[in-house]
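Weekly modeling sync, notes
Attendees: AB, CL, MP (scribe)

Item 1: holo prediction request
CL wants a bound-state model with manganese (III) ion before deciding which constructs to order. AB pointed out that an apo prediction alone won't tell us much about the pocket. Agreed to run with the ligand included and paste results into these notes for async review.

Input as submitted:
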Amino acid sequence: MQENNMYPFVNLPLPYAYDALEPYIDEKTMRLHHDKHLQTYVDNLNAAIEQDPRLKQLPLKQLIAYADKLPQPLQNAIRNNAGGVYNHRFYFDQLTNPSIVRPDGKLMQDINQTFGGLDKLKSELKTAALSVFGSGYAWLVVADKKLKIVTTPNQNTPLPECPILNIDVWEHAYYLKHYNVRADYINDLFDIINWDKAEERYEKCMRK
Ligand code: MN3
Protein backbone atom coordinates (compact mmCIF):
# COMPACT_ATOMS: atom_id res chain seq x y z
CA MET A 1 0.00 0.00 0.00
CA GLN A 2 1.13 3.54 -0.75
CA GLU A 3 2.06 5.59 2.26
CA ASN A 4 0.40 8.92 2.93
CA ASN A 5 0.45 9.48 6.66
CA MET A 6 0.89 13.23 6.93
CA TYR A 7 -0.55 16.48 5.58
CA PRO A 8 -1.43 16.95 2.79
CA PHE A 9 -3.62 13.87 2.90
CA VAL A 10 -4.76 12.36 -0.40
CA ASN A 11 -7.38 9.73 -1.14
CA LEU A 12 -5.29 6.65 -1.93
CA PRO A 13 -6.80 4.43 -4.64
CA LEU A 14 -8.53 1.21 -3.63
CA PRO A 15 -6.18 -1.80 -3.74
CA TYR A 16 -8.69 -3.53 -6.10
CA ALA A 17 -11.28 -2.59 -8.75
CA TYR A 18 -14.54 -0.91 -7.72
CA ASP A 19 -16.48 -3.98 -8.82
CA ALA A 20 -14.08 -6.47 -7.19
CA LEU A 21 -16.37 -7.10 -4.23
CA GLU A 22 -19.47 -7.90 -6.32
CA PRO A 23 -21.92 -9.37 -5.57
CA TYR A 24 -21.30 -8.87 -1.85
CA ILE A 25 -20.76 -5.14 -2.07
CA ASP A 26 -21.85 -3.45 -5.28
CA GLU A 27 -19.73 -1.20 -7.46
CA LYS A 28 -21.94 1.85 -6.94
CA THR A 29 -21.61 1.62 -3.15
CA MET A 30 -17.83 1.28 -3.47
CA ARG A 31 -17.57 4.29 -5.78
CA LEU A 32 -19.64 6.47 -3.46
CA HIS A 33 -18.03 5.16 -0.30
CA HIS A 34 -14.47 5.64 -1.52
CA ASP A 35 -14.69 8.54 -3.97
CA LYS A 36 -17.27 10.66 -2.13
CA HIS A 37 -17.40 9.74 1.57
CA LEU A 38 -13.72 9.04 2.15
CA GLN A 39 -12.75 11.96 -0.12
CA THR A 40 -14.81 14.27 2.08
CA TYR A 41 -12.98 13.10 5.21
CA VAL A 42 -9.65 13.66 3.44
CA ASP A 43 -10.63 17.17 2.32
CA ASN A 44 -12.06 18.15 5.70
CA LEU A 45 -9.01 16.77 7.51
CA ASN A 46 -6.67 18.91 5.37
CA ALA A 47 -8.88 21.95 5.97
CA ALA A 48 -8.87 21.35 9.75
CA ILE A 49 -5.08 20.94 9.84
CA GLU A 50 -4.68 24.23 7.98
CA GLN A 51 -6.30 25.99 10.94
CA ASP A 52 -3.33 25.06 13.15
CA PRO A 53 -0.12 24.66 11.11
CA ARG A 54 1.62 22.74 13.95
CA LEU A 55 -0.66 19.83 13.07
CA LYS A 56 1.11 19.51 9.71
CA GLN A 57 3.97 17.76 11.52
CA LEU A 58 1.82 14.95 12.94
CA PRO A 59 1.22 11.58 11.29
CA LEU A 60 -2.38 10.32 11.14
CA LYS A 61 -2.39 8.23 14.32
CA GLN A 62 -0.79 11.03 16.30
CA LEU A 63 -3.39 13.49 15.05
CA ILE A 64 -6.04 11.14 16.43
CA ALA A 65 -4.23 10.82 19.77
CA TYR A 66 -3.63 14.58 19.95
CA ALA A 67 -7.22 15.60 19.11
CA ASP A 68 -8.32 15.64 22.77
CA LYS A 69 -5.78 18.34 23.60
CA LEU A 70 -7.05 20.75 20.94
CA PRO A 71 -9.54 23.54 21.55
CA GLN A 72 -13.10 23.09 20.32
CA PRO A 73 -14.29 23.03 17.54
CA LEU A 74 -10.94 21.98 16.04
CA GLN A 75 -10.93 18.97 18.39
CA ASN A 76 -14.11 17.59 16.84
CA ALA A 77 -12.94 18.35 13.31
CA ILE A 78 -9.67 16.46 13.81
CA ARG A 79 -11.23 13.55 15.72
CA ASN A 80 -14.00 13.02 13.15
CA ASN A 81 -11.96 13.53 10.00
CA ALA A 82 -8.64 11.95 10.99
CA GLY A 83 -10.73 9.06 12.34
CA GLY A 84 -12.74 8.97 9.12
CA VAL A 85 -9.56 8.69 7.05
CA TYR A 86 -7.98 6.08 9.34
CA ASN A 87 -11.13 3.93 9.69
CA HIS A 88 -11.92 3.92 5.96
CA ARG A 89 -8.41 3.14 4.78
CA PHE A 90 -8.36 0.33 7.33
CA TYR A 91 -11.76 -0.97 6.15
CA PHE A 92 -11.07 -0.91 2.40
CA ASP A 93 -7.63 -2.42 2.84
CA GLN A 94 -8.97 -5.58 4.54
CA LEU A 95 -11.44 -6.58 1.79
CA THR A 96 -10.97 -8.88 -1.19
CA ASN A 97 -13.24 -10.82 -3.49
CA PRO A 98 -14.23 -13.49 -3.22
CA SER A 99 -12.47 -14.57 -0.13
CA ILE A 100 -11.85 -18.25 0.10
CA VAL A 101 -8.92 -17.74 2.41
CA ARG A 102 -9.44 -18.63 6.05
CA PRO A 103 -7.12 -17.52 8.80
CA ASP A 104 -4.70 -20.39 9.24
CA GLY A 105 -1.78 -19.15 11.27
CA LYS A 106 -1.40 -17.80 14.77
CA LEU A 107 -4.54 -15.68 14.32
CA MET A 108 -6.74 -18.73 13.70
CA GLN A 109 -5.26 -20.53 16.70
CA ASP A 110 -5.96 -17.55 18.92
CA ILE A 111 -9.46 -17.06 17.48
CA ASN A 112 -10.17 -20.69 18.39
CA GLN A 113 -8.79 -20.20 21.85
CA THR A 114 -10.52 -16.89 22.56
CA PHE A 115 -13.87 -17.32 20.80
CA GLY A 116 -14.18 -21.09 20.27
CA GLY A 117 -13.84 -20.95 16.47
CA LEU A 118 -14.20 -18.68 13.45
CA ASP A 119 -18.00 -18.95 13.33
CA LYS A 120 -18.21 -17.90 16.97
CA LEU A 121 -15.98 -14.92 16.28
CA LYS A 122 -18.20 -13.91 13.34
CA SER A 123 -21.33 -14.24 15.42
CA GLU A 124 -19.89 -12.14 18.26
CA LEU A 125 -18.65 -9.50 15.81
CA LYS A 126 -22.06 -9.44 14.16
CA THR A 127 -23.83 -9.00 17.49
CA ALA A 128 -21.49 -6.12 18.31
CA ALA A 129 -22.00 -4.52 14.88
CA LEU A 130 -25.78 -4.80 15.21
CA SER A 131 -25.61 -3.22 18.66
CA VAL A 132 -24.06 0.02 17.36
CA PHE A 133 -26.80 2.62 17.65
CA GLY A 134 -26.68 4.91 14.64
CA SER A 135 -23.30 5.24 12.95
CA GLY A 136 -20.03 3.64 14.00
CA TYR A 137 -17.91 0.52 13.82
CA ALA A 138 -17.40 -2.91 15.33
CA TRP A 139 -13.79 -4.00 15.69
CA LEU A 140 -11.65 -7.00 16.41
CA VAL A 141 -8.64 -5.62 18.27
CA VAL A 142 -5.65 -6.76 20.26
CA ALA A 143 -5.59 -5.29 23.76
CA ASP A 144 -2.97 -6.47 26.26
CA LYS A 145 -1.95 -9.21 23.80
CA LYS A 146 -5.51 -10.58 23.75
CA LEU A 147 -8.18 -10.58 21.04
CA LYS A 148 -11.21 -8.53 21.95
CA ILE A 149 -14.33 -7.14 20.25
CA VAL A 150 -15.18 -3.48 20.74
CA THR A 151 -17.44 -0.89 19.14
CA THR A 152 -16.85 2.80 18.49
CA PRO A 153 -19.39 5.55 17.75
CA ASN A 154 -19.17 7.92 14.78
CA GLN A 155 -15.61 8.00 13.38
CA ASN A 156 -13.90 7.27 16.70
CA THR A 157 -11.12 4.69 16.51
CA PRO A 158 -10.17 1.99 19.03
CA LEU A 159 -6.59 3.34 19.13
CA PRO A 160 -4.29 2.86 20.99
CA GLU A 161 -5.67 -0.70 21.02
CA CYS A 162 -4.35 -2.47 17.94
CA PRO A 163 -7.06 -3.21 15.35
CA ILE A 164 -7.29 -6.39 13.23
CA LEU A 165 -10.67 -5.96 11.50
CA ASN A 166 -13.42 -3.37 11.39
CA ILE A 167 -17.02 -3.34 10.22
CA ASP A 168 -18.27 0.04 9.02
CA VAL A 169 -21.96 0.16 9.96
CA TRP A 170 -22.65 3.66 8.71
CA GLU A 171 -25.62 3.31 6.37
CA HIS A 172 -23.58 4.68 3.45
CA ALA A 173 -21.58 1.42 3.60
CA TYR A 174 -24.58 -0.74 2.67
CA TYR A 175 -27.84 1.12 2.12
CA LEU A 176 -27.92 1.03 -1.71
CA LYS A 177 -27.71 -2.76 -1.80
CA HIS A 178 -28.82 -4.04 1.58
CA TYR A 179 -31.27 -1.22 2.35
CA ASN A 180 -31.95 -1.16 6.08
CA VAL A 181 -30.85 -4.76 6.69
CA ARG A 182 -27.54 -4.30 8.44
CA ALA A 183 -27.36 -8.03 9.29
CA ASP A 184 -27.32 -9.04 5.60
CA TYR A 185 -24.51 -6.60 4.89
CA ILE A 186 -22.48 -8.01 7.77
CA ASN A 187 -22.99 -11.57 6.51
CA ASP A 188 -21.85 -10.50 3.04
CA LEU A 189 -18.85 -8.70 4.48
CA PHE A 190 -17.60 -11.88 6.14
CA ASP A 191 -17.31 -13.45 2.67
CA ILE A 192 -14.91 -10.78 1.44
CA ILE A 193 -12.53 -10.48 4.37
CA ASN A 194 -8.91 -10.79 3.34
CA TRP A 195 -7.72 -13.09 6.12
CA ASP A 196 -4.13 -12.86 4.92
CA LYS A 197 -4.30 -9.16 5.67
CA ALA A 198 -5.88 -9.87 9.07
CA GLU A 199 -3.10 -12.34 9.85
CA GLU A 200 -0.47 -9.78 8.83
CA ARG A 201 -2.07 -7.17 11.08
CA TYR A 202 -2.29 -9.63 13.94
CA GLU A 203 1.38 -10.52 13.76
CA LYS A 204 2.25 -6.83 13.80
CA CYS A 205 -0.02 -6.13 16.77
CA MET A 206 1.45 -9.02 18.77
CA ARG A 207 5.01 -7.74 18.14
CA LYS A 208 4.20 -4.33 19.68
MN1 MN3 B 1 -17.93 4.53 5.75
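Recorded for review: Helices lie at 27-49, 60-66, 74-93, 106-115, 118-131, 175-178, 182-190, 195-207.
Action items: CL to compare against the apo run; MP to circulate these notes.
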